[in-house]
Amino acid sequence: MRVAVIGCGFFAQNHLNGWRDLAAEGIELAAVCDIDPKKAETAAKTFGVPRFYTEAGAMLAEEQIDFVDIVTQMDTHLEMVKLACAKGVDIILQKPLAPEWSAAREVVDTARKAGVRLTIHENFRYQSPMRKLKSVLDSGAIGKPTWARIAFRTGYDIYAVQPYLHQAKRFAILDVGIHMLDLARFFLGEVERVSCEAQCRNPENVGEDTATILMRHRSGAVSVVEVTMEARIDPDPFPETLVTIEGDHGAASVGPGLAARITSGGQTRAEDFGSPLLSWTSQPWHTVQESVLRTEEAIIRAWRAGKDPESTGDDNLKTYALVEAAYEAAREGRAIVPAVN
Ligand SMILES: NC(=O)c1ccc[n+]([C@@H]2O[C@H](COP(=O)([O-])OP(=O)(O)OC[C@H]3O[C@@H](n4cnc5c(N)ncnc54)[C@H](O)[C@@H]3O)[C@@H](O)[C@H]2O)c1
Question: Which residues pair with 250 in a beta bridge?
Fold first, then answer.
């Protein structure tokens, strides 16, 4: 399968490494594109890609590819998706779908009308510790999950590599909270209502940098989703997602250092849920980096088997609906029913 990557910035390096690792599974990096010629050229040289472009339309006109991998920022997603749909190629799109709900829906509708497969690169549910935790739940070891806390709390200087985040009008919930909300769906299922308190604790930030979200799931379970880039905790677990899930006859948690504890039938066992280091991953980012490869691998395997990957555009709209509900809940000071669930 031939892939072209659009956007060769900070996070795309992980996508490119992932595709290179998947050469063994028949993936060929056909071309890369970035409006910044230096970034496009450097990516082509680094990853042995035969051609690079500075204009996505030109690349799509020239190249024979099976799918595009869009790793630009969200304000360009709709435009890039329209180009790929005009060419009739399948699409992998980085989160978030778009800056706001109407555009997110348009992205999904555009792909549906064009008859192309759209999958969102939602990688947090593919992190090794999250996958292992899900298999504990699926094994029935803790019984029916009834309560969860899913937390991304850090003070790590993420602004060094993503300076645009200082200016984001919608920041913590849309940028990282979206992953936590997706994990809440992954572990506990769809959501009935959402409450949220949002704060801006760093005056250099335009948008909210902290959110505390409370959700009632359809199953009756309750989850607390916490996200902040302004924690002052030591040790700082960046970029680990820490999770506690309680069930009706046990509990499972992933704590700092990705140390897991599973209580089942009155017995507690400790396990290491850490991710392996790959040749191109390095701490502290390795858990996130490895999940990029796992996400790509899962999408390709599903497509090849003629199945839908987990995070189709339609599925990811349900996560995006939680983002919207959280903003509305914070604004209005009341619980909100998500627009799709
Ligand atoms: N899933 C995760 O864990 C994770 C982590 C970080 C970032 N992201 C997401 O990745 C995406 C990119 O973020 P980033 O930090 O790499 O941003 P970035 O600004 O470093 O990279 C984006 C690149 O896209 C290029 N670009 C912009 N418009 C373009 C166009 N029309 N055609 C071709 N190239 C274009 C820019 O020149 C830039 O090099 C965002 O959607 C962000 O939310 C995801």
Answer: 247, 264
